[in-house]
Amino acid sequence: MKVLLVGSGGREHAIAWKIKQSPKLDKLYIAPGNAGTQSLGINLNISDTDIDALLNFAKERDIDLTIVGPEAPLASGIVDVFSEAKLPIFGPRAAAARLESSKSFAKKVMKKWDIPTASYTSFDEPLEAIAYIDDISSFPTVVKADGLAAGKGVYICQNRLEAVSAINEIMVEKVFGTAGTTLVIEEFLDGWELSAFVFTDGKSVSEIVAACDYKRIGEGDTGPNTGGMGAYSPPHIWNQKIKDEIMNLVVKPVIDGMRKEYEAFTGTLFAGMMITKDGPKVIEFNCRLGDPETQVLLPLLKSDLLDVAVACANGTLKTSDVEWSTDASVAIVVASGGYPNSYSTGHKISGLGNLDGKTKIFHAGTTTNPEGDVITNGGRVLSINAVSENMELAKSTAYADARKIFFKDIYMRNDIAKDIG
Questions:
Q1: I want to staple 170 with a disulfide (CB 3.0 to 4.6 A). Which of 64, 134, 180, 413 is the partner?
Q2: Domains, the chain, ranges and CATH?
Q3: Which pTM value belongs to this model?
Q4: E runs forming strands in 263-379
C-alpha cells in the first residue's frame, strides 16, 4: 500500500513508526513531516492544512490510504474532500469533527444524549459572559475558547478577576483568533483526569485504551497549558469498571447518536475524562489521536495500525482485532525554553546518538540544517518513550535517556508519572 500521512508532530512520527512495521506498507509519504519521519518515509513540502495540494498529490501518486494526524485539517474538511474524490482516508468528516472544533456543539450533543459532563453555558458576547461570572457564587470555574486552540484555550479560574481576564483574552484580545468568537463557561470538575481512545468505523468500536497526560508547563501542574509535556499509560486508576462506564455511558452513545442524527464519526474518538466521585464525566471530545498520548499508546498496540486504519475507513472494523499490551509506557516531552510563550529555534540537538536503545525517540519540533544536523523547529521538540513491565522502570528508563539530550535552553518537567509505580 502507498500511504500519505498528514502532519508534522510527535504524534505523526509515532504513527509513521507504527505503520512502517506493517508488511502491507509499500511506500510512506509524510506531509510535511519532521527530522524523525524522514528516516521512515518521504517528507513532502506540503502543509498539513493545504488540502488542495494534498488531494492533488494523492491523486497523482495513486495513494491507497491517507491518515490524518492533527485536528485542523479534519475540522477544515479534508475527509469530505478526499471522500468526494473516492480516495480512502482515515478520520471524521468536518460535521463529525465538530465534536472537537466546537465545544458548544459537543456540549449540546452530550446534553441531548445524557452523556455525563460538567454543567455549562455558552456565550457570544464578552459582556454577557462577564455578567454571568458576576453571578457565580463559588470558584474555581472553567472558561474555554469554543474552537481549536492547540490545547491551550482552557482557563481554570480561581476567582472573578482570573475569569474576567480569561474572557477578555479569548473574546476581546482574540489570542486564539476566531476560536474565541464563542466561549463556554462550565462547572469545575474535581477528580482524576485521563484520556480515553477508541478506533471506530462509525458503527463498531475497538477496545478502549487510556493514558494520562500532563498539560501544564510547570512541575506540580503549575503555569499555563501546553500541548502536553509528557504522558503515561495505563492510568494508575484504570480498571474494568471505569472502562465499561466510559464505553457504555460515553463512547457508544456518542457514536450511535452521531450516526443517527448528525454525521457518522469514523477514525479515532478521544474523550478527555474526569473520574469524579460521581463517576466518569466528559471534559471534552477530540477527533484524533492525542499528542503526547500517541507516543505512549502506539508502542503498546500489538495490532497492525495500517489494518485498523483501513478497516475504519472501509467500514469493516468489526472484522479487525485491536489488541493492546498490558505493559507500562511513559513519554517525556523535551521542549524549547520559553514554550508555550516565546522561544527560539534553530538550535543543534546533541546526544541523540548516545541513547541505549531501550527507548524510542519521537520527533516533534525538529528539522535539519544544510549540514544535515538535527535542529529545533518548534516548542515541543522531542518525546522520549520507554515501555516496561512496570511503570517505575519505564519512567526511569525514559528519563535516563531524556537527560542525555541537549540543545540550547532545553526544558523538561521532572515529575512525569511521579509516584506512579
A1: 180
A2: 2-91 (3.40.50.20), 119-187 (3.30.1490.20), 190-319 (3.30.470.20), 328-411 (3.90.600.10)
A3: 0.93
A4: 267-276, 279-286, 328-336, 359-363, 366-368, 374-376
